[in-house]
Amino acid sequence: EIAEAISSQAQKVGYLSGMQFSHFPVEELAEKISRFLPFPSGKIYFLTSGSEAVEASIKLARQYWVAKGQDSKAHVISRNPSYHGNTLAALSLSAREHYKKIFRPLLMEISMIPAPYCYRCFWKEEYPSCQMKCAYELEKEILKLGKENVSAFLTEVIGGASTGAAQPPIEYFKIIRKICDEHEVLLVVDEVMTGIGRTGKWLACHHFDLVPDIVILGKGLSGGYFPLSALAVKKNIVDTVSKKGMSFLHAQTYAHHPVGCAAGLATLNYIEENKLVEKSSEMGRRLLTELAPLLDHPHVGDIRGKGLLAGVEFVKEKEGKKPFPRKKKYVENFISRAVEKGLILWPNIGQADGVDGDLILLAPPFIITQKDISQIFNMLREILFEMKNIE
Fold first, then answer.
1. Which of 45, 246, 265, 358 could pair covalently with 29 via S-S, beta carbons 3.0-4.6 A apart?
2. Any idea of the CA torsion for 311, 312, 317, 322, to the nearest 10 degrees?
3. Does residue 153 sit in helix, strand or coil?
4. Is the pTM for the entire model greater than 0.85?
């Protein structure tokens, strides 16, 4: 269905400038997305990659504050660990030192607060006795910078590759939302990886009853058939900019691409008609149940996830959660063995301290079966056995 929608649209109108024209696919896709947004009457802006959309969100936040006459509000706060993309602004906002080092002179100045990564708590405390320090750290950072200087807080809802599907305690985002409201800071959530059903709901926001100001979408938005991403924005933000006679200063050649929007619309229709969001939730529970016995292995420190997004974190020693030294390249060896067996995983390094740390991310297709899940478990168990002597 998706391939047919792409072919059909390409034969009708293959390209129009999104800056000058509208078309049926963009309007229909925007209407479709608006149905599952956590805020009413959202405005949608379509781009071609998650990194682009992250950059666009920061630019729009800046325009919003300028339109309100608060020109000093330009600083953005992010989290560590985190990952938001590889263009310069998106990379600036990501805690990936091994990606950033060579480009450091080109990157923008931002602030980072510790992510709610409970397995490796920044303060080495445990929930709930930690009293949610990671959430209240946002307020400390805003006050340090001066609320008059802070434009936005950019955050993943459930971690992607950077924390291996780590999710915060349920009250985390209630605290974050309250802090952002009190200090006039826009809350921007990166749902490029977690959106469109990946975590068992249309958006990861819905697990926390979170209403952000801007939602960034990508990846699953077109099912991988076309490069497509989007900003979903509260109406009042767009209206504030428009009332000042300003348009969004982010023109892109392929923004609102008709073929891309047709692919996105067909993807969302297919997901909805086949109840794949519900299936992601159910099969995700089965996946975590199946993976749980791996925790008995001495090098498996933690298994976590939501829906069909799961992470397995490896350690050299469980006591103290000591990671393998980077020179061992544990996760690289693990991935190589997985590929040989026909299993595709996503690796991450450095989450323990910026250098050391090994984890894998599993994000199987929504059509996964119980047989597939059992096969994944068996493959992971075999690889762990093969690598048992690595120290």
1. 265
2. -20
3. strand
4. yes
Q: Read off the CATH number of the domain in which 231 is found.
A: 3.40.640.10
Mean residue pLDDT of the chain comes to 97
Is 266 a member of any domain? yes
User: In angstroms, rounded to a whole number, what is the distance separating the alpha carbons of residues 391 and 198?
Assistant: 34
CA distance 307 to 203: 11
Please name which of 39, 43, 31 lies closest in space to residue 268, comparing C-alpha atoms. Answer: 31
Do residues 314 and 337 share a domain? yes
Structural domain of 313:
276-386
Task: Please give the structure tokens belonging to residue 305.
Answer: 């996830």
**Structure-block tokens of residue 65:** 């504050």
User: Could you tell me if residue 239 is inside a domain?
Assistant: yes
The number of beta carbons lying within 10 Å of the beta carbon of residue 123 is 11
* SS3 of residue 132 by DSSP: coil
Give me the helices (H) in the chain, please: 2-12, 24-34, 50-67, 88-92, 97-100, 133-145, 172-182, 235-243, 258-273, 276-291, 330-341, 370-386
Distance between CA 10 and CA 2 in Å, rounded?
12
* Residue 10: predicted pLDDT: 97
CA 94 to chain centre: 11
Q: What local confidence, expressed as pLDDT, does residue 391 receive?
A: 66
